# Entry
Amino acid sequence: MQQKAFIAWGAGWLLCLQGALAQAPVAVDSLVSRELAEVVITATRTEREVGLLPMPVSIISKSQIRSLGSVRLNDVLAEQAGLVIVPQVNGQGNGLQLQGFNPDYTLILIDGEPIIGRNTGSLELSRIAVGNIRQIEIVKGPSSSLYGSEALAGVVNIITERPPAGTSGQVSARYGTNQTVDLNGDIGFSNEKGGAYFFVNRFRTDGYDLSPERFGNTVSPFASTTLSGKVSYRLTPATEFAMAGRYFQENQSFQFEVFNNNDSVRTLGDGRITDWNINPTLTTRLSDRWKATARFYATGYRTRSRLDLKQLDTTDYNDFFNQTFARPEVTTEYFLNEKHMFTAGVGHIEESVETSRYGESGRKRQSTSYGFFQWEWQALPRWSIISGGRFDYNSIYGSQFSPKLSTRYEFSDRFAVKASGGIGFKAPDFRQLYLNFFNTAGGGYTVLGTEVALGRLAELEAAGQIASYLFDPALLGQLKAETSYAINAGATWQITPRLGTEVNFFHNSIDNLIETQAVAVTTANQTMFSYRNIRRAFTQGMEANLNYRLAPAWTLSAGYQLLYAKDKDVAASVRRGEIFWRDPETLTSERLRPREYFGLYNRSRHMGNVKLFYRHPGNGWEGTVRAIYRGKYGVGDLIGNIQGEVIPPSNRPGNSILDVHDDFVSGYVLVNVSMAKSLRNGFRFQVGIDNLFNHTEPVFIPNLPGRLAYITASYSFKKQTNK
Amino acid sequence: MSTRFFKSIWFMAAVVLVLMFSSCEEDEPAAALEAITVRNLNADHAPFGPNPPARVGETKKFTFFSFRTGQIVTRADSATVNWDVAFQGTSIIFNSGTSGPGNAGAQFLSGSFEEVTEAPESGYVVDNAPIRAVSSSPLPPGATPTNQWWQNSGTGQSTVVSPIAGRILVVRLAQGGFAKMEILSYYKDAPVTPNNMRDIDRHYTFRYLYQPNGGRTF
# Structure
């Protein structure tokens, strides 16, 4: 299948290339940055005007982030149409759901470089402070053709501030509910030779407790520090050297209750998360048409936690996780003429993980080499095509080819249609390959990564400890990458100068999803699990956005997402009439109709938001009222929240799938308001309330604190240097 | 022409009437089959001790039942053909093979209780311990059922025994004849969403339909 796709892609390229070379070259400099139009870099890895891109891309600007009053990335993303911050149990990261994909399938970048530290699959977005963000770019649909693994659902790229000419700086302090303090400071300098920018953030909170009747907190107190900076220097008129870096540390002290065989165990402890990265870049203009960039990116993530389980005769529980990632990459851009532009790159990734959960085997490594190519073609004045692909070769799971083709046709200045199709993938992660973890909770069970499973099972077999096999270990085999075939198609329509709309339909067909597989039962009646490429699923739906300028200072925006996310095999069994449900009144079995299968857990069919913004440039007042709706959804496959409460699954007994006869978490609306006043002397004051109506769901949505009020004061200055 | 026509009409009407009455007489007994629901059959309930899953006062003895009489059969008759099915915990046995001297057998059909209108001619499985016609173990998550009647719907470490919907057991009885049965609940008074901390387990609620004429239609 993949080979065929590769050949077709290659043949297409040869034909197109021939056409391209026949064009007469015209010198053009696309590197001149446009200051007025909104420009994104994530979709093509080069700066492009967002309105002209053939794939669904959205931007959250700095001024918008400031209006929201948010201080962490998760708060900003939670207010966007179609995005959900999904609570993860046991406090292991509240990740981002995009087009119905789990958090593991969206790549999160800072200035184009990946953030690592997906300890249990999802990435804790509150690690990212927003004070130094210039804009957030969200590309929906697979982007593995440029970014490789994990960019299956899409990419979120955080573009950090670059200093304007002159000297500028800002300090701000915010105080809010739960003794939450957020302090920011940044300073920047730049002239024609180069620039420097430094940012510091300190965040601390007492956390919160949604179940006061239970011991401990829902979120325990934590404090974090972020330092980041970048310097750039123009070595020659055509060559610039830049160096960026970031350091983050978070300390948390835990206090919670877990249940062991229905006995409460009070747990105390502390944990520390550290991440750092360094990113030197050399950019040079080889000619009017050639630009080349060499960059090196190295990053590390480590967590340490020590838990003291009171009332249990076990020793302290110590856990650590160290991950490193290093990547040299060379990319080049070539402007053939106004109609053809090429981007290509090669790179190599070295990754390693060392953790207490991989047994005695020490540090695990894998490496990936890759190359990518992209061709942007303005076929007609109104018709543009972007095609590209990336080839990854990994030391463990083998090779992966990810093509993508996008096109846009402009009927007029006000109406355009666009469509894109591509293949995305996610490589098996270290956990799925090397985990060797015995969990004492729940009578004990063991999870083994596929690379260590056979050896460990053989050891147990030799020691006579295997009671029976539930699955033939010989069939476990090597894990393949999870892949998605996706189509996005939509239109943008500026109906009147004040009213703009946008709609996008999407379909993602996902294969080889990795799931745990029960393999054996030991003589001590403990189940051994490993991983297999088992499931197939699809997500599809529609996203619509509307923007209406009511009056010069007033803007109304609305967004909506319709989502169907289902397991393909379950849907097929339902269609064949093999699945039943039990009527709670009569207790009798009824055949489930295809329409009655709701789909995957944790996906809402309907989501939306309505936001009203007021910004008066003259008098400095601004204000927002935002309402965010999440429709009903089911929960399942959860162990319990941090306070040890058992989360009742939505699924009623009878079958093991989520159908309309089950119990759902009800839909809800969150209302956030904020108000700010900017003074001419550089001071700005803001007050706001998030979750105005204090909506909480202690058991199902532990990451939703109650009402949060805050007040912020900031001072900024900007000085133009005299020549 | 017209008289002959009317005569034949009258004749046909008479024939139809006779046929109708006679067929009514034949149909009446067959329509009387009715499903019976047995509630709270105690299958060796015993409370959990301090170290689950050990139970205090567990007898490990089965409770025997006869579809023919619709009654629980005394344990003294366990070596006779007077019982068809017996329950202990999640174990269900049938009177044949390694479980008893009878000629019983059982097989699962997929469907609703009403949809099963005929017992299959063959395919009945005889208990041959440790492999029995009906497994005492749960359906592994995500697996297609083979001989399992329940799945675990408990969260985390807890076990909640939930009969899989749409699993109808067709039983060949110990002394011949057929019945169909559907297990509805494993907990006392059949709560909609059982809670293993609160509800009393090992109490079967099931409904069955026994065909007394020895035939295979229900």
About this structure: The CA atoms of residues 135 and 148 of chain B lie 5 Å apart.
